[in-house]
Amino acid sequence: MATTDSQPLLSVRNLRTHFPLDEGTVVAVDGASFDVQEGKTLGIVGESGCGKSVTARSILGLLDRPGRIVDGEILFRRRGGGDNGVDEVLDLATLDPKGHEMRSIRGAEIALVFQEPMSSFSPVHTIGTQLVEAVRLHNDVSRNEARNIGIEALHSVGIPFPEQRIDAYSFELSGGIRQRAMIAIALSCNPSLLIADEPTTALDVTTQAQILDLMRDLQQQHGMAIMLITHNLGVVAEMADDVVVMYLGEVVESAPVDDIFYAPKHPYTQALHQSIPSITAATGQKLASITGTVPHPYNRPKGCAFNPRCSSFITGTCDQQVPQLLPVAPDHQVSCFLYPEGGGT
Amino acid sequence: MVDEAEAIEARADAADERVYVASQWQLMWWRFRKHKPAMIAGVVMLGFYVIALLAPFFATTEPTLSEGDRSLMPPQRIHWFDGWKPSPHVFAVSGERDQVTFKRVYEVDRDQKIPVRFLGRGFEYKFLWLIPTDRHLLGAKGAKTEESIFLLGTDLQGRDVYSRLLFATRISMSIGLVGVSLSLVLGILLGGMSGFYGGYVDTVIQRAIEILRSIPTIPLWMGLAAALPQDWSVLRVYFAITLIISVLGWTELARVVRGRFLALREEDFVMAAMLSGASHTRTIFRHMVPSFYSHIIAVSTLAIPEMIISETALSFLGLGLQPPAVSYGVLLQAAQNIQAIALTPWLMIPAFPVIIVVLAFNFLGDGLRDAADPYSQ
Amino acid sequence: MLAYFIRRIFFAFGTLWVVSVIAFAIIQLPAGDYITSYITGLEALGDLVSEEEAETLREEYGLNRPIYVQYSKWMLQVVRGEFGLSMEYQLPVGDIIGERLLMTIIVALAAVFFVWVMALPIGIYSAVKQYSVGDYTFTFVGFLGLAVPNFLLALVLLYFSFRYFDANVAGLFSPEYFRAPWSIGRIIDLLKHLWIPAIVLGTAGTAALIRIMRANLLDELRKPYVVAARARGMSEWKLVLKYPVRVALNPFASTIGYILPYIVSGSIIVSVVLSLPTVGPLLLRSLLSQDMFLAGTIILLIGAMTVVGTLISDVILVLIDPRIRFSGR
Questions:
Q1: Cβ–Cβ gap A295/B12 under 8 Å
Q2: Does C265 contact B312 at a Cβ distance shorter than 8 Å?
Q3: Disruptive mutation site among B204, B213, B218 for chain C (greatest number of C CBs within 10 Å)
Q4: A103 closest CB neighbour out of C228, C233, C323
Q5: Residue A135 in contact with residue A150, Cβ under 8 Å?
Q6: Which chains touch A (3 or more CB pairs under 8 A)?
Q7: What CA–CA distance (Å, rounded) separates B149 from B91?
Q8: What distance in Å separates residue C120's CA from the closest CA in chain A?
Q9: Taking CB atoms and an 8 Å cutoff, what residues of chain C touch A134?
Q10: Is the pLDDT assigned to residue C121 strictly greater than 70?
C-alpha cells in the first residue's frame, strides 16, 4: 500500500479461507490483500460476517475446525529471525498451526486481543496465572521474575494496585480493567504487531475512549504496529493511519484514513458513510441504511459480492464478473467496475 | 429511488430463500438422517415393535405350553437342504432319562425328518387380536408344530424358549412405553410448575425431588415390589410394577423440564408474548413448550431402556412379574447361577434382546438429541 | 460459605430422616409380618403354630404395637448404634451386616477407582480427537457398556470364564480364605478376585462419565479463553489439560459423590449373580422373608451413604470452583 522504502511488517496476499461444513462450504475470506506498516495502525472495517475476524485468526493459524486457509500468502517480517540477526520474511500460511514455529510467533511477535475480555480469561484461574504463563512461554525466567514482569505490565496499562490485582479472578474485575489486563498480557513479550479484534465493542463509551488512548500510548512507547478490527467507523477515524474496508470476505477499498473518510470511492464505503447518523442532520430526517441484507454465506451473489445492494449497479458487468483490487491513486485501491484500470469516474 | 431500492431488495432476497425457509421439523429430519447409527437403531426398534404386535404369528408354540418330557432340550437347527434339494427341515429329537444322573439326555434322530414350511399351520390364535387363524411364520408339515420345532431349546418345564422370547418382547417393550408415558406426565407437570412459577412452589417440588433421588432406587423398588400381594392378577402386577418404576423415573425429566422453563422464562420472546396479552397458559403451551419438544422426545427415548432394564432386573430377582407372565426378566430367572449357565447356556439367550433393545434406544435417543437442536453447530 | 455448609448438613439430616421413615414404611407394607412368614415356613415343615403362640411371639418381638411406636423404638436404637435383632438369624443386625458392609464398600470403592482411571483419560481423548477412529470406537464401546445391564454382564462374564478358562470367578475369596481371619494372603486373594466385580459394576459408570466428560470438554474447547491461550503460544496438549479440562472437571467432580451410592445400589443385583458376600443378597433375602430390622437397617444404611455421598460431592464442587465460592450459593 504505502510506497515507503521499508517493507511492510505484514503483507497479506490473496488470502482465501474456507469452512467446509456439511451444508456447504462457507467462503469466509475470498481473496483479501492488504499491508500493515511497522509502527502504524491499520483499521479493518466491515459489517458483522464480512470476514474480518476470520482474517485475523487466519494470520495466527487460530481457525476453528473445520476452517482452512486454501490459498494466499501471509508474509510476516520477523525481527532477527534469519541468520546473523537479519530480518526474515516468513509465510505464515504455510506454517503448521500446532507447530513450534507458529507457537513461537504467537504472543511473542504477534499478539491478539479479543472482543470479549470476560470469556477470554479462564474462569477458574487468576489473571496472574495466565499472565505469568504468557511471559514464561517466550522468556526464560523464573516464576518470581515472571510475576514481577507481570505486575509491571499491569502497571503499564494503568491498572491500579497491580500487586493485588494480579491474583484476582477475571469475574472480579470490571470490564475496562479486564480489557486492560488482556492488553497487558498481549504486550508482555513486546510483540511487533498487535491484532485487536473489536477491542472496545463490549465496553461502554467512556471506557472505550480510555482503552483507545491506552493503545495509542503503548504504540508510541513500543513502536509496534496495530491491526485494529472494528465495525465502528468512529474508532477507525480516531485510531487508524490506513484503512481497509471488507465486504463478504473481500477487500473492496483500501486507503489512508483521510482518503477513506473524505474521498471514498467504493459504493459500499460511501453507503457506510451515509448511514452514520449525523448530529448536524435536520430533525425528522430518516436514517439512511444500506438496502438489502448481507447475503447468506451459502448464497454468494454471482460477480461482485456487493452487486445486489449497490446503487451504482451496472447490469451485465457487476453480476457477471468479479472486480479486482486496482489502484486509483498512489496509496488508494478500489475493487469496483466503476474504476477500471487506473481511471476514475 | 424507491423503485431502485425495491429492485435491489428483490435481487438480494431471492438468493436467500432456500436455507431460511426450512421448517424446524424439516431441519431436524435432515440432521437426524445424517446420524447413521440412529437410523439403523430406528429400524431395529420398528422391528421389535412389529414382533411385539405379531408375536403369535412368529411363534411356534403357545408360551405356556409345558411338557416334562421336553425339559431342557438344546436348540434345534433348521437344515435348509436335503442333499441338494432346498427343503428346510428339522430332525426329530427323542429324550430319555439317564438312569444314573436322572437327567434327560437327548438324541437327534437323523432318520426322522420333519419338514418345515413358511406360513405353515400351528396353534390357533387371533391375528392382531381380531382375525382367528392358525397360520404362523414357520410350521411343521406332517406333525404338530408345537411338538416339533424348538429353535432355541426348552426350559426346565419343557416350554419353547423361542416362542416365550417373542411373547416376552410384548410385555417388556410395552412396559417401557407405559412407564415413560407416566413419567412424562408427572415430569412435565411438576417440572413445569416448578420452573414456571419459581419461588415457593419451586422450592417445595425441588426438595421433594431431591429426597426422592436420595433414596437408593434398587432397594426401594425391591421393597415396593416385595410388598405386592401374592394374589394379584398378572395384569394388576404389571401395572403396579410400571407404577413403581416410574415413581422414581419422573424426577429426571422434571429436572430437565424445570431447567428449560427457568431458562426460557428469562427469554425476551416470553416477555414479548406476555406483554402482548397472552395468558399464562397460552404463553406456556404456545410459546415455551414448542421450543423444547425435541428435547423432551430425546430424553424420553433415553428413559425407555432404563424402564426395560428395571423391569428385567426386578423380574430376574423374582420380585417383579410372576409366571405365567412372560418378560425378559422372568425368562432370565432360569439363568441366575453358574450351574444353570454351564449346563444349559441357551437359557441365557434372552439377555441378548435386552442388550439390543437398550442399545437401539440409546442410539436412537442420541440421534434425536443431536437432531433436536438444528440450529446449533 | 460456612452458612452454606451448615445448611447442607441440616438438609442432609432431614433427608436421612425421611429415608428412614420411608425405609420403615416399605418394610411394613406387605400384609402380615415376619411371624406370618415364619409360621408359613414352619407349617410347610409340618409344624403348626396356634393363634396364641403366634400372639405371644408377636408380643415378644413387639410386633403388635402401633406402627409409630415401633418406628420410634427402632430409631432410638439406631441412634444408639443398636440396630435390633434379625428375626431370621436370631442375631444382632449389626453383627450380620458388619463384615458384609465392609465388603460392599470395598467392592464399590474398587469400582469407583476403575471408573475414574478409565473415564477421565478416555473422555479427554475423545473430546480432543473428536470424530477420530479412536473417538468412534470409544463411543461405541461406551454405548455397549451403558446398554448392557450390569447383572447381565456379570452373567456373560461368568459363562465365558467358566467355559473357556474353567474358572469360577464368582465370589470374593477362594474357598480357603473365605472364613479365615485377615492376613496379607487374604488381602491378596481379595485383590485377585476384586477386578471382576469392579469392572462389571464400573462399566456403566465409566461409559456415562466418559460421555459427560466428552460433552463438557467439547463445550469448553469452543470457548474464547481456549483460543486466547493458543494465541499466547501454548502447545496444544498443555493448554487443553491446563484450561478447558480444569473447567470441565467441575461438573465431572460433582458426580463423584453420586457414583458411590449408585454403585452400591447397583451392586445389589450383581452381588446376587456373582455370589458376593456383600449386602445385596442379604437385602434380597430379608425382603422376601420380611425380616424387618435387617431389611430396614440395610436400606437406611444405603440411604445414609447416598446422602453422605451427595454432601461430599457438593463440598468438593464448592472447593474446586472459585466462582461458586465467591458468589455463594
A1: yes
A2: no
A3: B218
A4: C233
A5: yes
A6: B, C
A7: 9
A8: 19
A9: 232-233
A10: yes
Please name the member of C223, C230, C232 whose beta carbon is closest to the beta carbon of A119.
C223
Q: Which residue of A has its CA nearest to C128?
A: A65
Tens-digit pLDDT profile for residues C187-219: 887 887 788 888 888 888 888 888 888 888 888
Taking CA atoms, C275 is separated from A204, C171, C297, in Å, by: 69, 5, 21
For cell 475512549, the residue is A209
Chain C positions touching B226 (Cβ under 8 A) are 30, 287-288, 290
Pick from C126, C128, C152, C129: nearest CA to C138: C126
Q: Does B343 touch chain C (CB under 8 A)?
A: no
Give the three-class secondary structure for A34.
strand
Across the interface, of A98, A124, A134, the residue whose CB is closest to C246 is A124
pLDDT tens digit string along A258-301? 988 888 888 888 888 887 777 777 777 777 777 777 777 777 78
A276 to A270, A286, B106, C226, C311: CA distances (angstroms): 10, 12, 95, 36, 58
Residue C60: pLDDT over 70 = no
Q: Does residue B100 belong to the interface with chain A, where contact is any CB pair within 8 Å? A: no
Q: Is B16 on the interface with A (CB under 8 A)?
A: yes
How many CB pairs lie under 8 A apart between chains B and C?
A: 115
Task: Of B230, B310, B218, give the one whose Cα is nearest residue C26.
Answer: B218
Task: With CB atoms and an 8 Å threshold, state whether C159 touches B345.
Answer: yes
- CA angle at residue A27 from A25 to A32, to 5 degrees? 160
A–B: how many Cβ contacts below 8 A?
Answer: 38
The pLDDT assigned to C161 comes to 78
pLDDT of B15 strictly over 50: no
Q: What share of chain B is helix, strand, coil (3-state, %, to 5)?
A: 65, 15, 25
Q: Which of B11, B27, B33 is the best mutation test for A, with the most CBs of A within 10 A?
A: B11
Q: CA-CA distances (angstroms) from residue A151 to A167, A171, B208?
A: 10, 19, 51
CB contact under 8 A, B15 and A291: no
Whole-angstrom Cα distance, residue B201 to residue B187? 15
Q: Which residue has the cell 505464515?
A: A92
Using an 8 Å Cβ cutoff, are A18 and A71 in contact? no
Q: Which chains touch C (3 or more CB pairs under 8 A)?
A: A, B
- Cα A9 from Cα A281, distance rounded (Å): 41
Angstrom CA distances, C289 to C26, C31, C41, C75, C275, stand at 13, 12, 10, 22, 19
**pTM listed for this prediction:** 0.72
Q: Where are the beta strands (DSSP E) in chain A?
A: 10-21, 24-36, 41-45, 68-78, 88-91, 110-113, 193-197, 225-230, 242-247, 250-256, 326-329, 332-334
Q: Which CATH architecture has domain A38-60+99-247?
A: 3-Layer(aba) Sandwich (3.40)
Closest to B30 (Cα-Cα) out of C129, A66, A24: A24
| CA dist., res. B272 & res. B275, Å (int) | 5
Per-residue pLDDT, A108 = 87
Closest CA–CA distance from residue A191 to any residue of chain C (Å): 11
Tens-digit pLDDT profile for residues A52-85: 889 999 999 888 888 889 999 999 988 765 556 5
**Cα(C103)–Cα(C125) distance, integer angstroms:** 34
* Residue C22 to residues B219, B329, C25, C97, C299, Cα–Cα distance (Å): 11, 27, 5, 20, 9
CA torsion through residues A312, A316, A321, A327, sign: negative
Predicted-complex ipTM score: 0.82
Peptide bond into A66 cis (omega under 30): yes
What's the gap in Å between the CA of B376 and the closest CA on chain C? 12
Q: Quick one: which of B131, B152, B144, B111 has its CA closest to B54? A: B131
Residue linked to cell 453480476: A319
Q: Which of C27, C168, C272 has the CB atom closest to B338's CB atom?
A: C168
Domain-wise residue ranges, chain A: 38-60+99-247, 253-277+289-342
